[in-house]
Amino acid sequence: MLPNTIALNRDLKPTTDLDSLIAGALAQHYALEPPRVMTTLFPETRGTAIGQPLIVT
User: Fold this and answer.
1) pLDDT above 90 covers what percent of the chain?
2) CA distance 49 to 13
3) Residue 8 exposure: Cα atoms within 13 Å on the Cβ side
4) Residue 38: is it exposed, middle or buried by C-beta count within 10 angstroms (0-12/13-18/19+)?
5) Which of 53, 34, 30 is nearest to 42 (CA)?
6) Neighbour count for residue 3 (Cβ, 10 Å)
7) Contact criterion met (CB below 8 Å) for 19 and 8
């Protein structure tokens, strides 16, 4: 691994915003529109909810 991909010399750097992950999972679980869930739960966040399936059954 390259040194710029490691955080604190031991962990991989996060590449996904946690707000996006939470909003995407809730949108999928409740069959809602991901952008609407994102703006409702996190109005101050400019990110977008993850729209691809997170939970595959």
Assistant:
1) 39
2) 20
3) 4
4) buried
5) 34
6) 6
7) no
* Cβ burial, residue 29 (10 Å; 0-12/13-18/19+): exposed
Number of H-type helices and E-type strands within the chain: 2, 2
Q: At 28, which amino acid appears?
A: Q
Does the pTM of the predicted model rise above 0.70?
no
Show Cβ contacts of residue 13 under 8 Å, excluding neighbours closer than 6 positions: 5, 6, 7
Report residue 18 as tokens.
């946690």
The residue count for the chain? 57
Q: Which two tokens stand for residue 48?
A: 């977008």
